[in-house]
Amino acid sequence: MAEGSASLAEVETAFQKFAIHGDTKARGKEMNGKNFAKLCKDCHITDGKNVTTTDVDIVFSKVKAKSARVITFEQFNQALTELAPKRFKGKSKEEALEQLYSLLIGKEPANVGVTKVAKAAAVDRLTDTTKYTGSHKERFDESGKGKGKSGRDDIPDTSGYVSAYKGSGTYDEKVKQA
Q1: Which domain, by its residues, includes 32?
Q2: Residues 48 and 84 in one domain
Q3: Same domain (yes/no): 88, 47
Q4: Which string of b and e fits 47-85 if b means at least 16 CB within 10 Å?
Q5: What are the distances in angstroms from CA 76 to CA 5, 14, 64?
Q6: CB atoms closer than 10 angstroms to residue 45
Q7: Which of 75, 77, 73 is nearest to 28 (CA)?
Q8: Do 61 and 133 fall into the same domain?
Q9: Which candidate, 54, 60, 43, places its Cα nearest to that of 100?
Q10: Mean per-residue pLDDT over the chain, rounded
Q11: Least C-beta-crowded within 10 Å: which of 38, 101, 106, 116?
Q12: Mean pLDDT, residues 94-118 taken together
């Protein structure tokens, strides 16, 4: 039975990981219904046939205290004991519970549906620096890397000559000739 108690500690670890999922104030001692349903889904306790999300909700309501909105680890174990025979039909209660524990061990909340970077053609087109024209083209080097401030700032010419004047730097020579 020593092996069973070791797996119980691992089950408690999984319980704590799911208990704090999505809740910054949670300490891992109690689990709400939403996280219990997530645990059942992520660990494949719900299979859509024998155990449905409705079953999970019913068992959660059954084991929690009347006015409470969360369950403790002891109540969580009670809930698993109720779900195990449903999930593994034809097995003894102990065998079913052992198999249910094996589904939980080492699991943590999967972040399904986490926001990913959009890879749309429009975004690619807008961020492709080779297609930039006009003054924006000057902001990037050949490799497409930004030049930083030197590519952005219009650096003034303080030589004293107008920008289109062709003979800049020839004044001193003209003065010498005269």
Answers
A1: 8-104
A2: yes
A3: yes
A4: eeeebeeebbeebbeebbeeeeebbbbebbbbbbbbbbb
A5: 16, 11, 9
A6: 23
A7: 73
A8: no
A9: 43
A10: 81
A11: 116
A12: 77
Domain containing 81 — which CATH number? 1.10.238.10
Q: What is the DSSP string of 127-151?
A: H-GGG--HHHHTTB-TTS-B-THHH
* Calpha distance 121→46 (Å, rounded): 38
Overall size of the chain counted in residues = 178
| Shared domain check, 66 and 19 | yes
Question: Do 12 and 99 reside in the same domain of the chain?
Answer: yes
pLDDT at residue 112, as a whole number: 56
Cα–Cα distance for residue pair 112/22, rounded to 1 Å: 13
Percent helix, strand and coil across the chain, each to the nearest 5: 50, 5, 45
Q: Classify the C-alpha dihedral 64-92-50-12 as positive or negative.
A: positive
Q: How many separate domains does the chain show?
A: 2
Residue reference for tokens 């800049």: 168
Whether the full predicted model's pTM is greater than 0.70, yes or no, is no
Running DSSP on this structure, what letter comes out for residue 25? Answer: T
